[in-house]
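Let's sit down with a protein and look at its sequence and fold side by side. Once you have written the record down, we can walk along the chain together.
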Amino acid sequence: MRRHAAIIGGGIGGLAAAIALGNDGWQVTVHERDAALPATGTALGMWPAALRALDTLTAGHAVRETGSPRRSGEVRRPDGSRIATIRTPPGDPIHLISRPALLTILHRAAATADLRFADPVHHPESLAADLVVAADGVFSHTREQLFGPAYRARHSGGTAWRGTVDGMETSTFVEVWGRGVKFGVTPQEGSRTNWFASAGAPAGSFHPGAEVSALRRMFDGWAAPVRPVLEAVTEAGILHHDVYVTPPLPSYVSGRVALIGDAAHAMTPDLGRGACEALIDAVALATALRESPTVASGLAAYDRRRRPVTRRLARAAAAAGRLSRVRHALPVRDGLLRASMLAA
């Protein structure tokens, strides 16, 4: 009799888990609360380890064909001078791909799964399955039900803006660091420029209907590529979200439930690794279950393999976020940033 896996969440981690488990013979049902895959979204960086996971999922070729490869980038000051060079490890370059494009590729590869849109799960224990995979994101109800309100997502102290500009093709892969704020620009498929910005701010510090003005004040006088992007941005093209993280969990498993992606280890976006780690989690979970005699022992192996790694990454992302919000002693900050790039 085929084992049955129920997956809560049909985003990047959930679809990746559906593919990985389905390839190993599991019957898979995916419960997604939204009515459809998103039609809009900004770029994600697929680092080499994530591309290897995508290869395991038979989706690597499509991501490489669709995405924009980049082997290096820069960190600059607002006047355009260079602070440090961003380089990828040997092997694959980073491939920049939009969230909708990546989800479309994963959805196509998960064709054997029973994907149910507009089907939220409020109580994971109600699912009749041998395995439950919680891929329900940073505000995971599953995590809170399993571990309690102490493990609810917390505001990181930062806020972020992001968006795309159509018809502005770029080859630039750069982050510009100012006094407590930063602005990034990358390519995106479809002749678009992807951009993002971040700053330290209390939760809820939004400017409804005036986000463009707020960004232009914040980054006034910054050199290209920041200035031309902000000149082209429209109010409707801005997404503004506070950044939330999860406290370190005592385990990524509880009974027959495994947490993956942001449900397990939501981190700040400063390393650009959130989506990557969700893909790697999914492949690691399927591998651990395949190599273990029971579901329980497979889940324990998954927890041993992934929790230490992702906790280190979350700490590194938090440290990078704090560094980007430094407002004084900027030459010292820039020196630390250069040293971190050399050590990466």
Remarks:
- The mean pLDDT is 94.
- The CA atoms of residues 82 and 192 lie 24 Å apart.
- The first helix runs from residue 12 to 23.
